[in-house]
From TrEMBL:
Pfam families: FMN_red. Gene3D superfamilies: 3.40.50.360. This is NADPH-dependent FMN reductase. SUPFAM superfamilies: Flavoproteins.
């Protein structure tokens, strides 16, 4: 299984190690591609809206494309981020912002509707679920049909500080999670995604686009009528 991992941090702490535990149970080393943020995409969205008119006009397109190409080629995506002040890391959030045209209200990519994804977060004491929720929301609106998450309070500021019994529990949890992913070959698009997509099609039909480019994008794909990205597989 090809896996692309997006780490919302440069360092290899608890969150990284848990993400890798999962990946290593599902794929061999040469099937795993990793990106570290901000190392591999050190930018914030400036709100210039150039990407709405033409994705290649994003000032950071070249760097971004290396990551999105790897995401497209992967069967599974793994996002890792520590909980920073009850949300994802700033670099993970910056990455999600730079992907905003991938949202269903704009120009979602067909290939997203084929992916399975895991979102992993850790916190020292509380709040991993807040970081997860934020990342999961983007993934859902990108169209990813199968998303599972794992959050844990590690009572530590790095992996070396995590107690042995907790590491054993984490390993067991990753075995369970890996089994779930291994069983899903072709994730099915759920009713909620279908409904959101339908509403977005209605919105584009009614001219509620951010730019005419969006309507054209939907029209060319037949999405304003009966075509759907998940039927193309
Ligand atoms: C900027 C910053 C903010 C943090 N905010 C929280 C927090 O709100 N709640 C919490 O329990 N831990 C918080 N932590 C602790 C980390 O979430 C926790 O140690 C996590 O396991 C670190 O993951 P890592 O080893 O992958 O870096 C924060 C740490 C940093 C550096």
């Amino acid at each position: 299984m090809k896996i692309t991992m997006i780490h919302g941090q440069n360092h290899k702490g608890s969150t990284y190690h848990i993400g890798r535990l999962l990946a290593d149970k599902l794929a061999s080393e040469d099937e795993i591609t990793e990106f570290f943020l901000p190392r591999d995409l050190n930018h914030f969205c400036m709100g210039c809206y150039q990407c709405i008119e033409d994705g290649t006009k994003c000032p950071y397109y070249t760097e971004k494309q290396i990551i999105t190409d790897a995401m497209e080629k992967a069967d599974m995506l793994i996002f890792t981020t520590p909980n920073y002040c009850m949300g994802p890391s700033a670099s993970m959030k910056a990455f999600l912002d730079l992907m905003f045209t991938y949202w269903m209200p704009h120009c979602p990519r067909e290939w997203m509707f084929t992916k399975k994804a895991a979102v992993i977060s850790t916190a020292a004491g509380a709040g991993a679920k807040h970081a997860i929720k934020n990342v999961k929301k983007s993934l859902f609106y990108w169209g990813v049909p199968y998303i599972k998450s794992y959050g844990i309070n590690v009572q530590a500021s790095n992996w070396a500080g995590v107690k042995e019994d907790k590491k054993i529990k984490i390993d067991k949890d990753m075995n369970k999670l890996a089994r779930r992913f291994a069983h899903i070959e072709r994730p099915r698009v759920c009713i909620k995604t279908k409904l959101v997509f339908f509403i977005m099609a209605k919105m584009h039909k009614a001219g509620g686009d951010t730019s005419p480019v969006e309507r054209q994008y939907w029209e060319e794909r037949g999405w304003l009528n009966k075509e759907r990205p998940w039927k193309k597989r």
